[in-house]
Design a protein that fits this description.
4 strands; single chain; Methanogenesis marker protein 6; elongated; Methan_mark_6; alpha+beta
Length: about 150
Amino acid sequence: MPEDIITKMVVIAESELPSDIAISAYKVSSDVTIKETCYGLMVTGKREEVDKVVNEVRKLNPTKIFVKERGFPPGDERRCRANRGGGPRPGFHQLKNEIDLLPDISKGLVLVERGSKPVALPEEKNLPVDIFKKIIEEEAAKIKGE
């Protein structure tokens, strides 16, 4: 694929259906390839057209629709499961982990929109070494005494 062709993944946190997002994406441009996935969409095409599509799609629900650029286009032999003998594609587990975090990120974005301020967390204090050594010695003594 030429270098000016990119793929962006549109990932839905919750409450939206990939098919609804795809319909909106098709309305924006016919110069991109749109593939529905279990997590949202993959939009492939020239950077300007892809950016135009994903920016419009994000406007539908900016706190629940996220965009990530994909390193390889769909069907790329270096990543395709058919050429690798099956199994999850490299990077799937990382994407799954990121998707699991999105509902919490969405809630945080909604709170920020409503004017919530971040809560100051107490600063962690390190345990002094001499106290740590004392704890180790006490625990070792308990084990020896048993």
